[in-house]
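Protocol step 4 of 5: obtain the predicted structure for the target chain.
Materials: sequence only (see below). No template structures provided, no constraints applied. The aim of this step is simply to have a reference model before the mutagenesis design in step 5. Sequence pasted as it appears in the construct record:
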Amino acid sequence: MITDDTPKVLTAKNDRMFKSIAHGNNGKDILESILSTVFEEEVEILEFIPVELPLDTEDERKKTLDVLVRVGEKIINIEINAQGFSDITKIRNLAFICKLFSKHVSKGQEIDVKTKFLQINFIFDSKKSKRLVTKSYLTNEDGIYTENLGIWNIFVENVEELCYTNPEAMEKFRYILMLDKTPEELKNFFPNDNIIQKFRGEVVRLNSDAAFIREISEEDEKMIISKQEGSAEKTIDVIKNLLIKHMSIEDIADVVNLSTDEVKNIIKENNLDKTGE
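Step 4 output (structure tokens):
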């Protein structure tokens, strides 16, 4: 049997890779260049906001990228992610931006209405949208309720498609395009751009860090197991609800795409009777 033993090369499409590169003073100019592309005007990072959770290591702290920036005359607190796009991540993103805002508003204190709170997500799953960017705010029937809290999704694959045969667009969005390029691809991608070549150096460095790569691999494995467990729990709930409706084992098996024996085993292992109780 032939196997491919070539190590996988990670790009900044990986959230940990992205945040490790963009975090702190060493990544300040890289992140400013990326954000300036998003806002289409100069962005100045004022502060990398430390994580308040009791995390013991620098690697753990780099799992969150929270910055205070100046864009024109606006001061914006931004949380940044590189990720896929699903209903789960949308709920997670909304919960995080609300938490980010609420920690700045305490009872008895003046509410901060000057600082904007924005989450920027670089999405690497364009099947969910045909747009380059989506901008979401709290709304009511009269329109936007407040612009103090917002979520912007940047669909990187759509940006790549736009730039494929458009040199001007490629130059404009080059700092977004670099996120999903390997060191080899970055070598000749705007080779005279210091930001891109510095970014490439960081991608090479982290891909050569065995401890970093091992940690990411372990996280990916845990995520896969978590998703599998979540899928199994969902299947159990579906079977339980169908039993309550007195559906036959054969029909339930068709619905959940399992064999009748597998459905019977799930019922037995989870102590579900014919009523689903």
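Step 4 remarks: The first strand starts at residue 43 and ends at 48. The first helix runs from residue 15 to 22.
Proceed to step 5.
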